[in-house]
Write a structure and sequence with these properties.
Mean pLDDT: 88
Low-confidence stretches: 1-15
InterPro entries: APOBEC/CMP_deaminase_Zn-bd (IPR016192), CMP_dCMP_dom (IPR002125), Cytidine_deaminase-like (IPR016193), dCMP_deaminase-rel (IPR015517), Deoxycytidylate_deaminase_dom (IPR035105)
Organism: Neodiprion lecontei
CATH architecture of one domain: 3-Layer(aba) Sandwich
Oligomer: single chain
Catalytic activity: dCMP + H2O + H(+) = dUMP + NH4(+)
Strand content: 5-15%
CATH class of one domain: Alpha Beta
CATH topology of one domain: Cytidine Deaminase, domain 2
Bound molecules: zinc ion
GO molecular function: dCMP deaminase activity; zinc ion binding
EC number: 3.5.4.12
Distance between the termini: 41 Å
Helix content: 10-25%
Length: 206
Amino acid sequence: MDRTNETAQNGSSGFSEERDINRKRTDYLEWDEYFMATAFLAAKRSKDPCTQVGVCIVNRNNKVVGVGYNGMPIGCSDNEFPWAKNSANKLETKHLYVCHAEMNAILNKNSADVEDCRMYVGLFPCNECAKVIIQSGIKSVVYMSDKYSQKITTIAAKRMFDASGVRYRQYIPQNKQIVIDFSEINWNEMTQEPQTPSPVKNSLTD
Ligand SMILES: [Zn+2]
């Protein structure tokens, strides 16, 4: 079947099976969507049973300079350190040990610094992360959920952001989900060019 005349079925929700291969795709991800999705993908690495948070930091040229998720410090085994939220023995709760995604993403940076960058994060940062964000020079935070808006840690974080000029805005996704389909890469295999011919003699050496 000749797919060249088939057009995209929809313009916004992820990838469509049929598309016009002679025109620019219209169902590509917007920057905000792409970076927030990157943060959410990173969150899938988290071992935390309750809260999986991911972060993606980008510079003003929209280049990713850091990615992170919440987890135990290096050398502190995921299997040996506690994941409990509450425990009779306070020493056995995760809060004392887990590195939040924001801090990890900043420390994971692949650039000299994160000055003037913006951070995409699934959940509004806590006060401890707000301090790190401010001190690192990050200038804006794009978050998805503000479910702990009444918690003292969030209120303190906003107070510090407001005082130090770090802007923050909520990201409202256009699509509820983005599907990553590993077979997508072969969607047009029926229109694949013939196999690469066997090597021919280099004309320069003839
Ligand atoms: Zn935090």
